[in-house]
């Protein structure tokens, strides 16, 4: 059974209470359940994680890279939050491991502040999804099943 890593960056632990007009009312626990259901549809195991710390996200991408090298990884769904727009470290980790990765954003970042329009992750992601709300997580897992 292959594994899907769903990695969530800073402030995503505040889903449901942080700017519900932008991010919706669903909590991170709701997103975890949605991802469990999507993985079950495709026979994937799930590693669902959240950290406010950039280095922790890098370590998890390295872990996913080891599983990828062993043929045990279906892919990574990464909502890096604000680190999308600032983290060369995440870029280098993704590049260095070669993990198949979907960059995900709950909101349409291109309809928001201009600093959110640039992503360090997009150049090394196989796909980018934004603006589908938390439903995007399930859609991203569905997409991984097609690869």
Automatic annotation (TrEMBL):
> What family, per the record?
Belongs to the type-II 3-dehydroquinase family.
EC number(s) in its UniProt entry? 4.2.1.10
Q: Which UniProt keywords apply?
A: Amino-acid biosynthesis, Aromatic amino acid biosynthesis, Lyase
Q: Which GO terms describe its molecular function?
A: 3-dehydroquinate dehydratase activity
Q: Which domain of life is it from?
A: Bacteria
Q: Which InterPro entries match?
A: DHquinase_II, DHquinase_II_CS, DHquinase_II_sf
Catalytic site positions: 23, 105
This protein's species is Paenacidovorax monticola
Q: Assembly state and interactors?
A: Homododecamer.
- Its catalytic activity? 3-dehydroquinate = 3-dehydroshikimate + H2O
Which top-level enzyme class is recorded in the Swiss-Prot or TrEMBL entry? lyase
Write down the position(s) of the site called Transition state stabilizer. 18
Q: What does this protein do?
A: Catalyzes a trans-dehydration via an enolate intermediate.
| UniProt: substrate binding residues | 79, 85, 92, 106-107, 116
Q: What is this protein called?
A: 3-dehydroquinate dehydratase
Metabolic or biological pathway: Metabolic intermediate biosynthesis; chorismate biosynthesis; chorismate from D-erythrose 4-phosphate and phosphoenolpyruvate: step 3/7
Tell me which SUPFAM superfamilies the record gives. Type II 3-dehydroquinate dehydratase (SSF52304)
Any one Gene Ontology biological process term? Answer: amino acid biosynthetic process
Recorded hits in NCBIfam families, A to Z, give: aroQ, PRK05395.1-2, PRK05395.1-3, PRK05395.1-4
């Amino acid at each position: 059974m292959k594994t899907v890593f769903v990695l969530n960056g800073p402030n995503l632990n505040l889903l449901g209470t942080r700017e519900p007009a932008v991010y919706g009312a669903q909590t991170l626990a709701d997103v975890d359940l949605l991802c469990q259901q999507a993985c079950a549809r495709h026979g994937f195991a799930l590693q669902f994680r959240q950290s406010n710390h950039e280095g922790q996200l890098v370590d998890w991408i390295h872990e996913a890279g080891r599983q990828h090298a062993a043929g045990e990884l279906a892919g990574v769904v990464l909502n890096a939050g604000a680190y999308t727009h600032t983290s060369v470290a995440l870029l280098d980790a993704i590049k260095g491991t070669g993990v198949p990765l979907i960059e995900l954003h709950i909101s349409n970042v291109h309809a928001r502040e201009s600093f959110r329009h640039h992503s360090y992750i997009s150049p090394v992601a196989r796909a980018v999804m934004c603006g589908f709300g938390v439903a995007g997580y399930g859609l991203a897992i569905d997409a991984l099943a097609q690869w």
